[in-house]
Amino acid sequence: MVYRNPTGEIGMRTKLRKSIELFAGAGGLGIGLAQAGFEPQIAVENDKWCCDTLRNNHKILGVNCEIENTSSGIIENDIRNIDFCEFENVVDLVSGGPPCQPFSLAGRHRAYEDARDLFPEAVRAVRESRPKAFIFENVKGLTRSKFSDYFSYIQLQLEHPEIMTNNDEDWHDHFKRLQQHHTSSSRFGLHYNVVTKVLNAANFGIPQKRERVIFVGFRDDINARWSCDDGPFTEESMVWDQVFGSYWEKHEIPKKDRILNYRSLLIAKRLSRDEKPKTLPWRTIRDAISDLPNPEYENNIRFPDHRLQSGARSYAGHTGSYIDEPSKTLKAGVHGVPGGENMIRWANGSVRYFTVRESARIQTFPDNFKFYGAWSECMRQLGNAVPVALASCVGESVNLRLTSTEI
Question: Which among 50, 100, 378, 393 is annotated as catalytic?
Answer without folding.
Answer: 100
